[in-house]
Design a protein that fits this description.
- A hairpin with a 2-residue loop joins strand 3 and strand 4.
- This protein has a four-stranded mixed sheet with strand order 2-1-3-4.
- Helix 1 crosses helix 6 and helix 2 crosses helix 4.
- The chain is α+β, with helices and mostly antiparallel strands.
């Protein structure tokens, strides 16, 4: 082997050693990268697991809150409906009273409303010097109530009010030929003053005052 061949062989041998070292170093680096990447992946997975768990808990919490709110709304609506139904039932019971009892109810209603009006006029005279309303007292009924009770209300009211201050108001009272667009009860018209004594208005007024009490009776 010539000297040139020996040099060439040495260069090749050293190159092979360098290549082997480079391959070994590269493999180590690859292994380190893979190991690090695996650790990062585990960390990322753990973070994702935690985030997913938190998101799941958040979703469950929101779902529970939403369900609780919906439950409260449903219960509130049911209670409101039941309370409304109680007052609606009361209205229907009044309107479906036997004729004799219904006429008595209307007569009492008229006497009570006119008595209250007398008290208001008395207060206005004392405080402001206003004169009493001397206009005729017109009682407006629904078409059905005119046929059912129209001729009997005033006489029944006069009998109830005999000897009371309100009796003089009843002397100028009469059932109007004009009908009222109400389900029952009456509209009392004294000049330009209308007093709404319809059954609907009475029930609505009672509802405003008694709704809480009725709900407590119904639901405890």
């Amino acid at each position: 082997m010539t000297g040139l061949d020996k040099i060439k062989d040495k260069i090749i041998a050293e190159a092979q050693l360098d290549a082997a070292r480079m391959i070994e170093d590269a493999q180590k680096k690859c292994n380190e990268i893979i190991l690090r990447a695996s650790g990062d992946a585990d960390n990322i997975k753990a973070e994702l697991d935690v985030a997913a768990h938190r998101e799941a808990e958040s979703l469950i919490s929101r779902a529970k809150s939403g369900a609780a709110l919906e439950k409260r709304n449903i219960i509130a609506q049911a209670k409101s409906h039941a309370t409304d139904l109680a007052f609606e039932t009361a209205k229907k019971e009044i309107l479906s009273l036997p004729d004799e009892q219904y006429i008595e109810f209307l007569a009492k209603l008229l006497v009570s409303a006119l008595s209250s009006q007398l008290d208001i006029e008395k207060t206005n005279r004392e405080l402001y010097g206003e004169e009493s309303n001397e206009a005729p007292v017109d009682v407006l009924l629904s078409q059905e109530d005119i046929m059912r009770a129209g001729t009997k209300i005033i006489p029944a009211a006069k009998k109830m009010a005999a000897g009371k201050p309100v009796s003089h108001l009843l002397e100028r009272a009469g059932v109007s030929v004009e009908t009222a667009k109400i389900e029952g009860g009456m509209i009392i018209r004294i000049g330009d003053l209308d007093i709404n004594c319809s059954v609907e208005a009475l029930i609505e007024s009672a509802k405003e005052r008694l709704e809480g009490d009725v709900a407590r009776i119904l639901f405890g």
